[in-house]
Design a protein that fits this description.
Elements lengths: L1 E7 L5 E5 L4 H10 L7 E4 L5 H13 L2 E5 L2 E5 L10 H4 L8 H9 L1 E5 L12 H9 L3 E3 L4 E5 L8 E3 L5 H13 L2 E6 L5 H12 L3 E3 L5 E6 L7 E3 L4 H13 L3 E5 L7 H10 L2 E5 L2 E5 L8 E3 L11 H8 L4 E6 L10 H6 L3 E5 L2 E6 L7 E3 L3 H13 L3 E5 L1 H7 L3 H7 L3 E7 L10
Parallel strand pairs: 2-14, 3-13, 9-10, 17-18, 21-22
Antiparallel strand pairs: 1-22, 1-23, 3-5, 4-5, 6-8, 7-8, 10-12, 11-12, 14-16, 15-16, 18-20, 19-20
Helix pairs in contact: 1-2, 1-7, 4-6, 5-6, 6-7, 8-10, 8-12, 10-12, 12-13
The structure holds uridine-diphosphate-2(N-acetylglucosaminyl) butyric acid.
Length: 429
């Protein structure tokens, strides 16, 4: 099967659009529901491939799961297995959140090493540190994470070497299962960390300090199912804000949390974009000339690495020199080759992209090499002259719910096409 996204560039995006539920919150909260002794209902889930993949894993493990209209009900009481299959686990990074929850539920877990976007080295040493500090036995031979509860599985002090999102969530999930007090130092502060902690609290866990760099947990309490709605997607919000600004549009983004967007908003204002916020709405308006800027990705509340790619695509047609430095993942500039094929003038020196804005990108056939590279391709296609055909759409669908529909709602010509392998015609484009 071949999937493409066709976009005609040159349209100023205008109108209103609603943000979907947060992917990176959803993929942590769904596994966390397995820690309960009764069913949970999770609302506002995005209709994306990563959520379907988790649903399939949970069903495979024996849980009773339904997922319709953004609502998943999860009854974990039928779970009999602790070894999710490689074919499902390899599809997404977040599948390793199953390690602590199956450990907590079953006393042991056996989870193949996770997959996910190829954006650089993605070690799991800090997750392993969290698990072993809390007294779990962990064995990594054969590409499988085998974790086992021991006699000394109990709360403790955990110092993360880096505020890793995944390690913070995994350590939090382990700590709610281990009896006694745990303190996670140098914790990540991203909105999805806070959302996961809030979900755990709603299940009866004692978790304080999420959103700061010290999280305290009193573990070992029985957890019950909960009804919970995940937060709006911070990165989808940011991608839509960038798309609105890049096309010199006027877009009202609804259902967003403006405080999650402060680092991006500051950069857009610096460029000369108008950003107005109220409650759960952000209006982004741009007209005329924009100014080049410098960006350095940082952990939250710094500029998110997940918005580095769409932002660089916008800067590719902003006159002047912009410097974009990636500090989180070393391999997140692969999409720059595709932007160059559209006429962008970008050089990458180690971890910095030097972007010399050109007057006009040109539409062509381009490929998304990972999820956020896909967001960059969309932004570039929207501002380019003529038609672009984006391949690698499976990556985009992992994280952006009905993105083609949302762009059409804002006046763009964007069509998601699916072909059988023998139907795809190279000349059609
Ligand atoms: N790191 C380590 N050791 C670890 C874990 C991470 O050295 O044990 C390093 C990584 O090599 C990397 C940095 O820490 O340099 C950041 O990794 P982190 O663990 O924070 O990232 P992650 O949990 O793998 C999540 C998001 C990513 C997002 C990053 C950074 C999920 C499911 N994924 O990944 O989202 O880019 O945090 O904010 O939450 C995406 O949505 O497209 C995406 C890739």
């Amino acid at each position: 099967m071949i999937e493409t996204l066709l976009i005609d560039g040159g349209v100023r995006l205008k109108g209103e659009v609603t943000v979907s539920g947060g992917k990176n919150a959803a993929v942590a909260i769904i596994p966390a529901a397995l820690l309960a002794d009764s069913p949970s209902t999770i609302e506002n889930l995005p209709d994306i491939d990563d959520v379907y993949c988790l649903r399939d894993i949970l069903i495979w493990l024996g849980a009773d799961v339904t997922f319709e209209h953004g609502v998943m009900s999860i009854d974990p009481r039928g779970i009999t297995r602790n070894d999710p299959p490689y074919e499902l686990v390899r599809k997404m990074r977040a599948s390793y959140y199953l390690v602590p929850v199956l450990l907590g539920r079953m006393g042991s877990s056996c989870v193949p090493m996770p997959g996910g976007c190829d954006i650089g080295n993605r070690p799991i040493d800090q997750t392993i540190k969290g698990l072993t500090s809390l007294g779990a036995d962990v064995d990594l031979s054969g590409g499988v994470i085998r974790a086992q509860v021991t006699d000394h599985f109990e709360g403790t002090e955990v110092f993360l070497d880096f505020p890793s999102v995944g390690a913070t969530i995994n350590t939090m999930l382990t700590a709610v299962c281990a009896k006694g007090a745990t303190t996670i130092h140098n914790a990540a502060k991203e909105p999805h960390i806070v959302d996961t902690a809030n979900f755990l609290s709603s299940m009866g866990a004692w978790v304080k300090g999420a959103g700061t760099d010290v999280i305290r947990i009193r573990g070992g309490r029985p957890l019950h199912g909960s009804n919970y709605a995940v937060i709006p997607d911070q990165i989808e919000t940011g991608t839509l804000m960038i798309a609105a600004a890049a096309t010199r549009g006027d877009v009202m983004i609804r259902g967003a949390i403006p405080t999650h967007m402060e680092s991006l908003t500051a950069k857009l204002l610096e460029m000369g974009v108008h950003v107005n916020e109220a409650d759960d709405r952000i209006r982004v308006r741009a007209d005329g000339k924009l100014r080049p800027i410098n960006i350095k990705t940082q952990v939250y509340p710094g500029f998110p690495t997940d918005l580095q790619q769409p932002m660089t695509a916008m800067l590719a047609s902003v006159p002047g020199s912009s410097y974009v430095t990636e500090t989180i993942f070393e391999n997140r500039f692969r999409y720059v080759d595709e932007l160059r094929r559209m006429g962008a003038n970008i050089r990458v020196l180690e971890r910095t992209a030097i972007v010399e804005g050109v007057p006009q990108l040109r539409g062509t056939r381009i490929t998304a090499t990972d999820l956020r590279a896909g967001a960059a391709m969309i932004v570039a296609a929207l501002i380019a002259e003529g038609r672009s055909e984006i391949k690698g759409v499976k990556y985009i669908m992992r994280g952006y719910e009905r993105i083609d529909e949302k762009l059409r709602l804002l006046g763009a010509m964007a069509i998601h096409k699916t072909y059988a392998d023998n139907e795809y015609n190279d000349d059609e484009f």
